[in-house]
Amino acid sequence: MAEVFLGLGSNVGNRMHYLQRAIEMLKEHSDIEVIAKSNIYETEPYGLKDQDSFLNMTVKISSKLDPERLLKYIHIVEEKLDRERIIHWGPRTIDIDILLYGKEKIDLPHLQVPHPYMTDRLFVLMPLQEIYDGTIPGSLESIDELIQKHKGKQGIELYRKQLF
Q1: CA distance 7 to 15
Q2: Choice among 21, 95, 133, 160 that is catalytic
Q3: Partner of 94 for a Cys bridge, out of 18, 25, 47, 90, CB 3.0 to 4.6 A?
């Protein structure tokens, strides 16, 4: 079983519903166990600024799926939740990223782990810090140091304590 951390985000429709349904669908897979969930944060959009704010969180899972099979299942979950890939960094009902997969470093055209942008994004770092106490493979700075480095540069605030 691999220890995996996922980043979830939504900024279309009932954002809480999409986060909750994504977690429920992860739990439905026989080779995935949801271990921990962070609080939910409301964040400014990253990249394309002319869109609604996101709700973001991280989830710790234990999985028997190898990284590519996990990614395929994640894409199925996103598709079932009406995710459309039209605009890069654009609006989406749900976005699920593999942030960390054990201590593995994966560099494939369709999958990079650790997630290549996670150390620059408070909407990943702050919720991740709540449920992960390790260091990010390849990073010279701790999560605390990375958060301090980016604080005040990106709009983020606690939206809701984890309820589901």
Answers
A1: 14
A2: 95
A3: 18
Task: Indicate the number of domains in the chain.
Answer: 1
The values of phi and psi at residue 112, to 5°, are: -120, 125
What is the residue range of 69's domain? Answer: 2-160
Q: What is the pLDDT along the chain (164 residues), one digit of tens a residue?
A: 999 999 999 999 999 999 999 999 999 999 999 999 999 999 988 766 677 899 999 999 999 999 999 999 999 999 999 877 666 566 889 999 999 999 889 898 899 989 888 998 999 999 999 999 888 888 888 899 999 988 877 788 888 776 66
The CATH number of residue 113's host domain is 3.30.70.560
In degrees, to the nearest 5, what angle opens at C-alpha 40 toward C-alphas 139 and 154?
55
Annotated catalytic residue 121: no
